User: Fold this.
Amino acid sequence: MFSLENQALRITIDQHGAELQSIFGKMHQLEYLWNGNPAFWPKRSPVLFPIVGTLRDNTYYFNDKAYPMGRHGFAREKDFSPNQHGVESISFSLREDQSTIQVFPFPFEFVITYTLRENTLNTLYQISNRGQSDMYFSVGGHPAFRIPLADGTSYDDYWLEFNEDETKPRWPISAEGLIEKRPVPLLVSSDHLPLTKDLFKKDAIVLKDPTSSIVSIKSEKTPHGLDFDFSGFPFLGIWAAPNADFVCIEPWCGIADSVDSNQQLVNKEGINRLLPGNIFERHWSVSFY
Assistant:
């Protein structure tokens, strides 16, 4: 287990999946990250790579060959190698190996860097194409934040607040984990989404191309919350396990297959194409108070 600390925050990271295990606010003695209770959901902040969500029949096709892959890809179950470890920054890397080539036929390096700046945690994804041909992939975050945050408050006391008014539907997820063909209404000229556990009875909320770049967790009953900046991510997932005391805010460069997907990787909605020798970068950050 690895840790970073400054005057405001202390975080811990497991090199297995390069996954955050704790985000502790020192000034308020407050834990912000979900505790990974296996009775509800054993993860805390998994990294999604080289796909986001579920593939139709858990399979994609590339160059006329079928490749099996489970939901959210393999990175969250791989041990990353720790690289540079400074006072307020640490990075981890993952490269292809014999097992990954069987399901993802691309040489790559995936570097994740966590950096603390005052009360803000920044997470940087850097994906390098180490091969001789174009690489196709998705990447995303899946951090789960503890709700309620403060004693004396309940789950229903909190809401999500976007930094822009949104008129966006929700894209339903089928029983097989695929994106349905027709969206349903969710936000209409509003920046406010109340949090209730019923909100996630039919799996995650999926938003495509939201106008906002920041979403916050807020409550009238406590000054504590967070601002989540997902600039540069074209999809946003919001999710919680049934009856669990957390909410995931998920910035995605990629999305699950649609129910009528042709399963061709190069045609997959939201897929990223990376030329040989190039590097793809995205970052998300969270400020805690």
Q: What stands out?
A: Residues 58 and 101 are 16 Å apart (CA to CA).
